Amino acid sequence: MEKTEQHIIMKEEPVISIKGIYKSFGSLNVLKGIDFNLFTGENVAVLGKSGSGKSVLIKIIVGLLKPDKGDVFVLGKQVDKLGRIELDTLRLRIGFSFQSSALYDSMNVYQNLAFPLTMNMKNLSKKNIDDAIEEVLDAVGLKDKINQMPSDLSGGQRKRIGIARTLILKPEIMLYDEPTSGLDPITSAEIIKLINKVQHKYNTSSVIITHDLTCAKNTGNRIAMLFGGKFLKDGKFEDVFDSDDEQITGFFNYNFIQ
Q1: In 98-123, which positions are buried (b, 16+ CB within 10 angstroms) versus exposed (e)?
Q2: Is residue 172 classed as helix, strand or coil in its secondary structure?
Q3: In this predicted model, what pLDDT tens digit does every residue of 164-206 receive, in sequence order?
Q4: Does residue 192 fall inside a structural domain?
Q5: Same domain as 179, residue 70
Q6: What does the DSSP assignment read for 119-168?
Q7: pLDDT digits (tens, 9 = 90+) for 26-69
Q8: Per the structure, how many domains does the chain have?
Q9: Same domain, 3 and 65
């Protein structure tokens, strides 16, 4: 699978800037002084095995966890210093695609997509809501599923509807938590194409948390390898894995599917 050529517009100020972050849970040291930047229009795939701190990192970015030490800036705001109202306002500019898709089982697709709009934008008309839902369903290729219940959808379709729900508020940053986990290779390829489509269509800046090397290779403009609470290497896929580091080569040899 070849990643399509991308035309990324960068700017000097990162949309996410993390400096010297430490995070522990009791005696378990999860993040050990990491630095990380994400720039406008860029996809960065954060790779690492289970327990390496990937999910903790993404929760710190959205303010679900506070770091023990260090600074976290998102869209110019220091996340760990924000009050509840300011943090809620910032989160409206961030789309978080959960590993589980996090759809409401009691709502059909239309209702799941309408919910964030009606909760956060009180003055929208029914036509505004309908148009927004049609746009995001078209973007994920599931316009024909608008009246379906989540239980009637495949795992891949639920992932795509979950992504549609994050897109409906037009976020500037997308955070994907294991977007291809549990999916067969064909469905994984569809999600990979969708992540790239979202980047181009909406000019999002994205962090893709994954242990799937195929996903990382085909979505990431840059790869960041997280091991033992630290970033071992950062760069293009081929450069990252051109390494004699046994942790990196071992991860590649065990996981990669050509």
Answers
A1: bbebebeeeebbbbbbbebbeeeeee
A2: coil
A3: 999 999 999 999 998 998 888 998 999 999 999 999 999 999 9
A4: no
A5: yes
A6: HH-TT--HHHHHHHHHHHHHHHT-GGGTT--GGGS-HHHHHHHHHHHHHT
A7: 999 999 999 999 999 999 999 987 777 888 999 999 999 999 99
A8: 2
A9: yes
Same-domain pairing of 129 and 89: no
Examine the domain organization and report whether 166 and 153 are in the same domain. yes
pLDDT exceeds cutoff 90 at 123: no
CATH code, 205: 3.40.50.300
Q: Which residues pair with 173 in a beta bridge?
A: 94, 205
Orientation angle between helical segments 155-167 and 109-120, nearest 10 degrees:
20
What integer is the mean pLDDT of 95-103?
79
Question: What residues contact residue 94 under an 8 Å CB cut-off, 6+ apart?
Answer: 61, 62, 74, 171, 172, 173, 174, 175
> Which ranges constitute the DSSP H helices of 49-125?
54-61, 84-91, 109-120
Its domain, for residue 126, covers 100-170
